[in-house]
Amino acid sequence: MPRYRTEVTHSLGQPEALARMRAMAEYGRRTSGLQGEWSDNRFEFSLTVQGVSLSGTISVEADVLKFDGRLPIVAIPFKSWINRALKKGLQQAGPGGPMVATAAEVSSSVTPDAPVVLFLHIPKAGGSTLGEYVYNQCSAPNASDDDPLNAGVAYLDYGFIKDPELTVPEHVVNLLHCHDLRAVIGHFWFGLHEHIARPCRYITLLRDPLERVVSLYYFAKLQDTMTLEEFARNPPFREVDNDQTRRIAGVNPPVGECTRATLDLARENLRRHFDVVGTTERMDETLAQLNVKLGWNRDVVSYPRNVNTDRPKWSLLTPEAVEAICARNELDFELWRYASELLDGTRAEISERLRRI
Description:
A six-stranded mixed sheet has the order 9-10-11-8-12-13. A five-stranded antiparallel sheet has the order 1-5-4-3-2, with helices on one face. A hairpin with a 2-residue loop joins strand 2 and strand 3. The chain folds into two domains: 94 residues, TATA-Binding Protein (2-Layer Sandwich), CATH 3.30.310; 244 residues, P-loop containing nucleotide triphosphate hydrolases (Rossmann fold, 3-Layer(aba) Sandwich), CATH 3.40.50.300. By secondary structure, it is of the alpha/beta class. Helix 8 runs parallel beside helix 11. It contains eleven helices and 13 strands. The relative contact order is 0.11. It is globular, with a radius of gyration of 21 Å. 38% of the residues lie in helices and 19% in strands.
């Protein structure tokens, strides 16, 4: 595995920096499944983030934090997270962990039967924009941005690469039991509502499978390892193979084993359990329907997030690569078209409702 080293400078001095990093580690044990042991000023740890296992050591020096570890290839896109985590750990910590909001800071308007919004964010489907919109509509006012429940919104730290058995980590289950939970945003799959005692309202966003897989390939930075055609014909992980159908159906068979029954289950779930099903290509319309169906009325400006500028122009994609992606994601194409049909139907329903007012 590739080795990754990074440093974060500070001016706290070793005793204070060490105290803050120890507090962050204890906080991580409670909220993210972090495992590790301290030996003087050195922390050896392991952690799974978005289905990717990370491990390494953190050394706390008088003026710098040093990270040294080995990351699997699929984890390379997440390496910037390491620096951000180290910097956050150096921030002043409260008694319950870094920057924890007090009970008074979280709005008490959440009632025991208030529905929880579940944004099922399919990786590389353009959902970062929608995630920000969900947060801005659902978050509690005057709450901290750094507690486990980010102003009442849970950002899940797993699932970009799914656990083969679709196991929900214990620390996530504990998070979902928080009484002030307002919304959940993350790369999960259908079925998360089974861990929440209150009513839930699913929303999701689907994308043209060709666009999604190309974006996934360049996000994973595999250009030096395999071609795009090879990526589609022999996927290094299941998320290349009909992943939109898998997540909406709530199943995760081996590569090549999604069936028409899987697609039928995904369609049924969209029809019966999702309040709003949008598409990346119709984002403005998706946001408008969320406002109407979920009663959102905060004045929020939304703009594209996480646009990959490293992607090639479509003219540079080979016909063989396009054919391989389409063959690998045949079910996703059907589900994406079905999502657009649902969006059409909801638009007609809302138009008729408004006409009668």
